[in-house]
Design a protein that fits this description.
This protein has 144 residues and is of the alpha+beta class. Helix content is 15%, strand content 27%.
Length: 144
C-alpha cells in the first residue's frame, strides 16, 4: 500500500506520513479539505455526479475553487503557519494554475489529504508536490 503512494508521491520518501483511512469512492480531496465526507466535490456540468456549491460557476479554475471554499467561510490568507482558532486549506495547482488538489491543516500543524479514490493520509504539506498535484499555490482559512 505505501509503496504505491511512495511511487506516486516521491516527496513522501523524505518525511513521515500516516495512512489514516482506507480507500473510499464517496468523497475526494476537495470535499475532505472542506470537511465533507459525504460528497465528491468537483465542478462537473452534471450535478448528479458531483457536488459543487450553489452559486459558484462549474469551472475548473482557481477562482471557482476559491469561491467554493468561501461558501464554507474560508478566506484567502498569507501562509500555512498554524494559527490558533483557525482551520487552513492549501490549494494545489499545475503549472497552468489549474486546480488539482486540496489539503487541510490539522490542529498539530501537519496536513491531511484524500488521495483521489485512495486513502486519506497525514503528511507534511509539501510532500505531495510534484508531477501529479503540481505545487501549493494558495492558502485559505476560516474560524475553527
Amino acid at each position: 500500500m505505501s509503496d504505491r503512494l511512495l511511487a506516486a508521491f516521491p516527496g513522501l520518501r523524505t518525511t513521515s506520513f500516516q495512512i489514516t483511512s482506507p480507500p473510499d469512492f464517496t468523497y475526494n480531496c476537495i470535499a475532505w479539505a472542506a470537511n465533507d465526507c459525504t460528497e465528491w466535490w468537483w465542478p462537473l456540468d452534471d450535478s448528479r455526479q458531483c457536488f459543487w456549491p450553489v452559486g459558484v460557476e462549474r469551472q475548473v479554475t482557481f477562482e471557482a475553487f476559491v469561491l467554493a471554499f468561501q461558501t464554507r467561510g474560508y478566506s484567502v490568507c498569507e501562509d500555512q503557519s498554524l494559527e490558533a482558532g483557525f482551520v487552513k486549506v492549501a490549494l494545489f495547482a499545475d503549472a497552468d494554475r489549474v486546480p488539482t488538489h486540496a489539503a487541510r491543516q490539522l490542529p498539530s500543524g501537519r496536513w491531511t489529504s484524500k488521495l483521489g479514490h485512495s486513502e486519506d493520509i497525514g503528511h507534511d504539506l509539501r510532500a505531495l508536490e510534484g508531477a501529479i498535484y503540481g505545487s501549493v499555490v494558495l492558502f485559505l482559512k476560516r474560524p475553527a
